[in-house]
Amino acid sequence: MHELSVTMSLLDLVLEEAAKAGASKIVGANIVLGEMTGIIDHYDQANFELLSQNTPAEGAALSFRNVPRQARCRHCAHLFRPADLEWTCPRCHSSEIEMTGGSELYVESIEVE
Amino acid sequence: MEIKVLKDILNANNQIAEQNRQLLTSKHTMTINLMSSPGSGKTTLILRTFEALRDKARIAVIEGDVSSSIDAETLSQAGVTAIQINTGGACHLDASMVNSALGNLPLDDIDILFIENVGNLICPGGFDLGEYLRVVILSTPEGDDKPHKYPLLFTQAKALLVNKTDLLPYVGFDLAAFTRAFKGLNQEAALFTISGLTGEGIDEWTKWVMDNLQKLRTLNP
Q: What's the count of helices (H) and strands (E) in chain B, helices before strands?
């Protein structure tokens, strides 16, 4: 997966937001990460530690809220997490579903000093 | 102190993608981001599409690969305007790579621009390139279970092409099960079964491409 390019974008974003707020140090970032993005949080953390050296974000702790994939049945509106292979509604067994969660990839907030 | 951000991590990419989209719209160029696994038939599909539409539309290609220019050379030999992007290891194209390539293409003379993404069913799905349509190819030897393994890409597709139907008798691909799974996830997408080898289904696909080009021209005269 492309954790490195995602982490570079993440670092740019938090540095920009901190600069806008006039903050000199970033101590943490809260990230929302959907299961379907395929991004693995501990790779992201390791990349961030390397890339943020000598920047105001050096030493910042990344905190991840992982969002599982979620589907909504188009027939009975039941919300469920599809199993690995059989993606049918557990209530009415319809296969007509709409993905409603799991593609998130955003920064919720940052902690600055 | 906590500062609310609520911004997509790929915000910078999305902004460049939007610039690409505006440029392409102003040039009346319909752009198709073509995504699939390696070896599923993207380059062959582009060649077939070029052959079928050469009298109706001017087609060009941005070729994305980790390395080599084999595909761009194949396309150029067939007479297609093709620009190669080597990502140098990256598993997907991003909007700034496409932005650089757009500067080297005669956009005023291109009706349909294919962007052949890096062969991969995961990473390309996260990166908006500024395209008008996302199209996914799946070839029958890859198996019919892919929509549920790679849901992001399959839910984003405006069209899905099942390629290599000539191999259906040999590979155990359950077309009915695939169609049920895919249509369950994505009701709106057009679904085509094609063979790049025999040409089966290419007419239906190219008609869909031309219908979309007409629609775009009506929206953006």
A: 9, 8
